[in-house]
Structures are given as C-alpha cells and as structure tokens.
Amino acid sequence: MDKNYKEYVDKISPKPTYIKNYILAFVVGGTICVIGQIINDAYMSFGLDKLKSAGATSMTLIFIGAFLTGIGVYDLIGKRAGAGSIIPITGFANSIVSPAMEYKREGYVMGVGANLFKVAGPVLVYGIGSSVLCGLIYYTIKFVI
After folding, report:
1. Residue 17: phi, psi to the nearest 5?
2. Residue 31: which of 116, 82, 88 has the closest Cα?
3. Could you tell me which residues come within 8 angstroms of residue 70 by beta carbon, excluding any fewer than 6 positions away?
C-alpha cells in the first residue's frame, strides 16, 4: 500500500525546474548586485571615500529591501528568484521586516519587538558566534606561534 501511494505521489507531484531556478536566482541576485554597485559608484561620485560609500550603499540597499517588503513587492520577487533574492543584503532586510509586519497587530512590544528577529536572529547569533570563535583561534595562533 505504501509503495503504491509513493508512486502515485511521485507521478502527480510537479517536477522541479532546476535550470530555470538557477538562472532566475543568478539573474535576480546579479541585478541586485549591479544596482548596489551603481549606488556605490553614485555615492563615490558625490565625494564619499570607499569605506563611507560602502556603508551608505549597505544602508540604502537595506532600506530598499525593507521598503519593497513593506509594499509587498519583495515577496513577489522572492517567489520567482529564490536564493537570488535571499542571499544579498536586501534579503536580510526582508527577513527582519516580514515578521515585524506579520505581528504588528499584536502590539509593538509583544508583537513586533518579540518577533522581529524570529528569522534573522539565529543567523545573527551563528554569524557573531562564528566570528568570535575564528577571532579567538586567529589570536591564539598568531601570538602563541
């Protein structure tokens, strides 16, 4: 019985289109990066040095990602692009704003505040923890050897 059911499910399940998904992720992710480079070049042409323009570009891309999430456009992009929209910094903005919008009805403290980092929190904890661990290993190796 289980074998027949598995065969039935395999037969009626839609087949994933891997090549199409790869191409869309590459094109959308690349487009976000090109937009970021254009913004960075614009900031540098206004007189910002390389470090300040990088920070301003990151802030601008985060704002754009949050804004597009707020008006519902970024989710439509994410449905088509997959990882191409998640991996750039705009995807981080989306992962922060989406839970905040979802729980806004529950109030700003118990809704937004409590659920703001529901998706991005574990990523931040892992990233910060990993960087501290790598820094300690580097520091130990550098000064012990």
Report:
1. -105, 85
2. 88
3. 97, 101
**Computed from CA positions of residues 4, 9, 12, 14, in that sequence, does the dihedral angle turn out positive or negative?**
negative
Among 105, 82, 107, which residue's Cα sits nearest to residue 94?
A: 82
Spans of the chain below 70 pLDDT: 1
State the alpha helices, DSSP H only, in the chain: 2-12, 18-45, 50-70, 73-81, 83-86, 89-102, 114-115, 120-144
Q: Indicate the pTM of the whole model.
A: 0.71
Helical packing angle, 50-70 and 73-81, nearest 10°: 100
| pLDDT value, residue 96 | 81
Please list, in sequence order, all residues whose beta carbon lies within 8 angstroms of the beta carbon of residue 63, skipping any fewer than 6 positions away: 93
Could you give the CA distance from residue 78 to residue 130 in angstroms, rounded to a whole number?
A: 27
Q: Given the structure tokens 């989406």, which residue do they identify?
A: 98
